């Protein structure tokens, strides 16, 4: 049976939340401002809010217990706050600022982009240097930023130093009735959905305690380029899973769309506007067959459109499953992941939120049948 939510109203709420969240910078490991923004958005709803030394944010909503049984499940729903970006690695005598990538930023991104350097004194704008075709360039091309400084000392006076986080400067736009464009929709989409869901559960709880986890450092550990994950990220989610010990977990992340030019037809699995995706396999996690069957049954019962696919890289599910916690890994279809401009479909966002709600409602049934 479908959840009785007004989908148009829900879509508008999600768009409003995205506008709030995408304007806040949160390079992986530097999510503090995002955490503060989400806390401000959630606090009026009455959820119990806490944090930890990894920078995770926890928002807990107690469950409704119709039967009087005190063993209703603890369901953890996880969305990561961080975004890919850079930190300053060096500043030379001429005032050029060199960058170290954090997260899987494609090698060809950067040159010519507007960037924001997030200092303790405020945001400084700059441009990633580009070698125009007029100049002969040999050897490796470094990623460097020009903030208009004459020398190193002027850069330091701007409160820029080694370790200063750097993001692309793009914000958020609604493209048309159904689609949105944003800098870090991966995974502020998940954060927006989780925020909206926790608001609704605070007013109308389900028969499960729901722990919303806005996790830190998911992207840290993903290497630049598109090769296999050589190292392991998602340390924030690991701490959260150890701390909360839920009975059931739902991870809400992006899922790359393969419906763009240059992708062979036989490789096109996930399409924009076709509903939430089950992330069946990635570099570090495989969805268990009983979970896949359960999710497909929930979707059918709740009249929710879903897709299924395989992806490179990893999500927070990769560490949560190591604690013997059943994990439902959902992907929100997204074009141009990790790029300065990413595109998502509002209907996909609404469908995913409804799906999360339905899964959390039925988590106890899954646990009974294990």
Nutshell version of this structure?
The chain is of the alpha+beta class.
Q: Care to describe what's here?
A:
The chain has eight helices and 17 strands. It has 370 residues and is an alpha+beta fold. The strands form three sheets. Strands 1-2-12-3-13-16-14-15 form an eight-stranded mixed beta sheet, with helices on both faces. A six-stranded antiparallel barrel has the order 4-5-8-7-6-9. A three-stranded antiparallel beta sheet has the order 10-11-17. Helix 6 links the parallel strand 14 (276-281) and strand 15 (306-310). Helix 1 (7-22) packs across helix 4 (185-203) and helix 4 (185-203) crosses helix 8 (346-368). The longest helix is centred in the last third of the chain and has 23 residues, at 346-368. It is globular, with a radius of gyration of 21 Å.
